[in-house]
Specification:
alpha/beta; about 300 residues; 2 domains; seven-stranded mixed sheet
């Protein structure tokens, strides 16, 4: 089956593409919603027609041992021409017993979503981190198509936090606005992240995690450069200062960047009074304490 040609001839409102989604147990009674990557529970909230496509060689009959037949029978699906479908044909599931090896297929599925004005969700369960590739593919499209992709195409429902074979499927779902548009965190610029603070609790948690990562990077790189400058040694990292900047110049940049991050954490309502006081103390005592002890104290801002 040429899957893209098939999809183009018979478009659906919503496509869920799973990669490496073989069931982790063949005991149907133990195959709870938390384990179910075949028909994840977030699909229960989707309106319209749905196509589910899975790529995994472990679904082949010699490995499957009849699990899929038992699973779909319990769900009330019927098999027609190798495609599992609900009796009303609203949901169909296609199992492809091959490895998903062609990155170009991602682009093909994205183009299909654009051309059919449908939604697409892609999830990998093999430990592959889709975020970087998704951003690169996204940049290959026109601005008009990028706008559609950002609203209607989502790679990784865990948003880079838990994309592996042990993903708890009851914990994750696409974050959507009231119009059914995806809040596509992995594609957001820093400005878009800030603009979306407060729109959704789950999105705020993702922004918080991202901001804390930025804070840890700022502290690590600039504090190393600060120590190097104190010793009159070459700087290790590039910063918003010259390569021969003084320790005081570097510290000024570090503190300003941290202050900006803390203002974001404050907007997220995730900055405690204790951390505010910690930053105030560290902003004034860095000349008087051991540089390593000072850095250790500052890391408490994101821990």
């Amino acid at each position: 089956m040429n899957i893209i040609s098939y999809c183009n001839v018979n478009p659906r409102d919503y496509t869920y593409l799973g990669i490496g989604s073989k069931n982790r147990t063949s005991d149907l009674d133990a195959f709870t919603p938390a384990l179910d990557q075949i028909l994840p529970c977030f699909l229960n909230t989707v309106n319209g027609t749905i196509r589910v496509i899975h790529y995994d060689p472990q679904f082949a009959p010699e490995y499957d041992n009849g699990f899929l037949s038992r699973y779909f029978a319990r769900k009330g699906f019927i098999e027609i021409g190798g495609v599992w479908t609900t009796p009303d044909f609203r949901i169909e599931v296609i199992i492809i017993t091959e490895m998903f090896t062609q990155e170009s297929l991602f682009t093909d599925f994205m183009k299909h979503a654009i051309n059919t004005r449908s939604r697409l969700v892609v999830q990998a369960y093999s430990g592959i981190e889709l975020g970087s590739m998704y951003k690169n593919l996204y940049m290959e499209f026109s601005l008009q198509d990028q706008e559609y992709i950002k609203d209607r195409v989502l790679f990784d429902i865990t948003y880079g936090t838990d994309c592996n074979c042990g993903t708890d499927m009851t914990k994750y779902a696409p974050i959507e606005d009231s119009q059914g548009r995806f809040m596509n965190f992995l594609l957001y610029t820093q400005e878009e992240k800030l603009a979306n603070i407060g729109r959704h609790p789950q999105l705020d948690k993702l922004i918080y995690k991202s901001v804390c990562y930025d804070l840890s990077k700022i502290l690590n790189e600039n504090s190393v450069n600060y120590r190097k400058a104190l010793k009159k040694e070459p700087l290790m990292f590039r910063g918003d200062y010259s390569h021969d900047a003084s320790a005081e110049e570097i510290m000024a940049v570090l503190l300003n960047k941290v202050q900006n991050i803390l203002s974001i954490l404050d907007r997220l309502k995730m900055l405690t009074e204790e951390k505010k006081q910690l930053f105030a103390k560290c902003s004034s005592n860095y000349r008087d304490v051991d540089v390593y002890a000072w850095y250790s104290e500052m890391t408490k801002l994101y821990k």
